[in-house]
Design a protein that fits this description.
68% of the residues lie in helices and 0% in strands. The radius of gyration is 17 Å and the shape is elongated. Helix 2 runs antiparallel to helix 3 and helix 3 packs antiparallel against helix 4. The chain is an all-alpha fold. The protein has a domain of 56 residues.
């Protein structure tokens, strides 16, 4: 297994990825804004929505970036991709049984 990676290979992978997934970048920004909105404006489903956004981002990163784009260039990234996917599935479980609360607090140093 080749564990070397050149800067050129890394930058080429980023370039291909960003070109090929267009306009997913815009969707990612929108999802990020939605997560921030629900961290500020609390509703009954805020934590589930935020957890869903996080789960989607983790699954996308593991499945699309690491497995399809980075894997052929750097074999170890398949392991990273698998770990991201497992974490994404764990985050998906948080949608159905939320154990985490997300919120933005206005105090600089919480008690």
């Amino acid at each position: 297994m080749d564990t070397t990676l050149t800067l050129e290979q890394l930058l080429d992978t980023f370039e291909r990825y960003n070109i090929d997934i267009w306009p997913m970048q815009i969707i990612a920004y929108v999802l990020g804004i939605i997560a921030i909105f629900f961290a500020i404006k609390r509703t009954k489903y805020s934590d589930r929505i935020i957890m869903g956004v996080i789960a989607f981002m983790w699954l996308w990163t593991g499945g699309v970036f690491y497995m399809f784009f980075f894997g052929p260039v750097y074999n170890i990234s398949y392991i990273f991709g698998l770990l991201f996917i497992v974490q994404g599935i764990i985050f998906l479980a948080g949608i159905f049984k939320p154990l985490t609360s997300f919120r933005i607090r206005g105090e600089l140093f919480p008690p």
